Structure formats: structure tokens, C-alpha cells
Amino acid sequence: MKNSLLLCLVFICFFVLPSCVKKDASAGNQQKVLTAVEAVRKRLSDSLHTAVPSLSVLIQTPSEKIFASAAAEEGLRITARTYYRFASMTKNFTATSILNMYEAGWLDYKAKIIDPMPGSTTPYVPATPDWDFPNKNIITIEQLLQHSAGVFDVDNDTVPGYKGHSYTEYTQMMDPTHQFTTTEMVKVLKDKNLVYFAPGTNHHYSNTGYSILAEIIKRVYTLRAGKEKTYGDYLLDSVTGSKAPMPITGLHFPVLASDITLPDPRLLGTVLNPGGTIEKFDKFNMSAQIGEGNVYGTMEDANTWIRSLMKGGNVLTRGTIQLMQKDLSPGAPDYALGCTFKQNLGYGHNGARIGYLNLMVYDPETDVSVVTQLSLWDLRDGFNSFIKCFNAIYDAGYAARTALGYPGKP
């Protein structure tokens, strides 16, 4: 009897208790992360003097994955499987697609955009009058990827003749159902002679540059498939779909003006406008943002994507992934090929679109990935209030890392 009791105690001490301790530690870490994220949300709320609907973080370390959603009200909490718009995090998918085609021999990312696609006489971009925008003949695919092509951004910047708005904003104000094309956007560049600088001489973020990359993906895939294909087709067929090395079925790449609805459960983006009006968004025509901001999915999807990609477990080889990783030497540009870098957060991309602020990053030094999401744009004080919201997606990521003992905000 004594021997049996002793053996039972040994079993409990060596096998059962460690399991319990591990569970308790994970529960403790979950609370640490939630407390840290809530503190960031509360500071933002106090600074803006308004309720912040929700601020959420998914963090994965070598040993655990933790999701925490802090909210002004219990009903506003989201889950890691709530759908939202990725916005400019899309650029990382576009750059990956270009580099995946490069690995397959389908394109040369060093080539000029007027060069012929491999194995054909067809150029990467249309050789039509509408496409004769400034510097077209000397721009390379690589320069588009790293925002050094000087392509004017008709989606973000004010365009003359459109009453103080960007071309895409004004057009959607006139017709929310308008089906945009890349051709019409580059025609604006041509007609207005819009350009930032000579290619390769500077850097300026350009959504329109990434719209051109999406057109290149579409044209290359159409040539290879022998039938008409879209940007979304290539992503689903080769990068994230069932045939991809790491299928992520929750991701969607709308290209039609009619494809405006997020699946359930979905997150509403909140915009606080000057004058006090409040707008809520989830339905939106993303046809003007193909390749630069049209993707939607969940925080779980974003984490799976950036973590597997940057670890070399997805569609690109480790050597090609290094092309996406920013040169950290002093004076180097802030943007590599579809990827930015933040110390103690890592490589990835942020995103801002119609009430959504997002971030996905992976840090190879610590093997920690972080995805953050804030469902608020405060425009009541213009840039000053907006940048507080934008900074919060980084602060939440740093706070989650610090809560788990990793280096935080520099």
C-alpha cells in the first residue's frame, strides 16, 4: 500500500504537476498580455478623450501563442478569427507574389516594366497610349517594389482637378460602385503629368506603384495560364490557396467593385470625423486598391502568413526572403521589397484603410511574431489625432512583447 501511494505521488509530482504548472503559466501570460494591451488602449482613450472600441494583439513565441482583445465594452471584443481589412499589409502579399514568379523564372524583378516577359514579346505593362505615364520607360519592377520609382500616388495624394481629393476618393464619392482599373489610374498620371522624382533617386510611398505591380502579376499569370487571369487568381492558386505550401483559406483578394462584404464574424472600422460625426465601415469597394490594399482575413491568418513566410516555411526560399528584409545599415531606405522593419518588432507591414489600423511583423532574433489591430481612425484633429491611433498599433505590439519578457519599445 505504501509503495503504491509513493508511486502515485511520484507520478503526480513528475507528470501531472508540470502539466498544471505549464497551463497556469500560459493562463498567467494570457492575463499579462491582456493587461498590457488594455493599458495601451486606455492611454489612447485618455489622450483622445473618447472611447476606443477595441485594440487586439496576437503574439506567438517559440513556446506559445496568445490572443488578447481589449475593448471599451465586453461586446466589442473580437476573436483571432474575426474578419477585417488588411489594407496595406496587402503589399507584402504582392511583393511575395512577384518574388515567387521570379523564383519560377516567370519574371525578372530587375527588369524594366517595358521589357518583354520571359519567353514572349509581350511587355510587363501594356504598350498603349494610356500607359505612357512619366518615366515609364526607365522604371524597374524592383523600384516599384521598394517605392523608389517616383510613381505618383493617385490613391493617397491630392490630384489637381478633383476638388482637393485623390483621384480614387473623388471617383468613389461620385460613384461608390465604380469599377476601377489600373489603366485608368495610370492614365491620370499621364494626363496630369504627375511624378515625384526620377526613378532610383529617392523614395516615396506609392499605392499606385503597387497597383502597377498587381497588373504585372495579372499579365504574367495570364500569359502562363494561356487564358485571362486576375491578381486574385494568382494569389489563390499559387500563394495562399489549397495548392500553396502553407494554405491559408481565410484570406480573400477582391478585385470586383461588387465584392464589398466581409464574412461573419466581421469587425467594423470606426471613423471619427471633424465635427463629431461617426462612421462605421465594413463594406467597401476595393477595386481601386488591388495589390496595394485589397486583402482581407483574420488575425490568425495574418500571423500564419508573416510567421511562415519570414521563417522560410512558405512559398519563398530563405535567400529570396532576404531580398524582402530591410538593409539595417545607417542611411539605408526604410523600405525593402514589400517589407518594413521596426527594431524589437521585426519585419512585416502595417495597414490603414477606412477605420482599420493593422500591423503584422516577425522578429527573427527572438522567433516572435506579432499581429495588432485597432478599429479606429480619429480624424477630429486631423493628423494629430490620427497618428495617435496609428502609433497605438506599434505600442500594443511592444507592450505584448514586454509582458512576456522580450525586448520592447526602443
Q: Give the number of domains.
A: 1
Strand order across the largest sheet: 2-1-10-9-8-7
The CATH superfamily label reads DD-peptidase/beta-lactamase superfamily
- Report the uncertain regions: 1-23
| Inertia-based shape | globular
- Written as H for each helix and E for each strand, in order along the chain, the element string is HEEEHHHHHHEEEHHEEEEEH
* Cα distance spanning the termini: 60 Å
How many individual helices?
A: 10
In terms of structural class, how would the helical and strand content be classed? alpha+beta
User: Per CATH, what is the topology?
Assistant: Beta-lactamase
Q: Provide the β-strand percentage band.
A: 5-15%
Main beta sheet? 6 strands, antiparallel
Write down the overall mean pLDDT.
92
What is the CATH architecture descriptor? 3-Layer(aba) Sandwich
DSSP helix fraction = 25-40%
Number of strands: 11
Which features does this protein show?
alpha+beta; Beta-lactamase; 6-stranded antiparallel beta sheet; globular; disordered N terminus
How would you explain this protein's 3D organization?
This protein is of the alpha+beta class and 410 residues long. The chain has a single domain, classed as 3-Layer(aba) Sandwich (Beta-lactamase), CATH 3.40.710. It contains 10 helices and 11 strands. The strands form 3 sheets. A 6-stranded antiparallel sheet has the order 2-1-10-9-8-7, with helices on both faces. The protein has a 3-stranded mixed sheet with strand order 5-4-11. A two-stranded antiparallel sheet has the order 3-6. Strand 8 and strand 9 form a beta hairpin. Helix 1 runs antiparallel to helix 10 and helix 2 packs parallel to helix 6. It is globular. The N terminus is likely disordered.
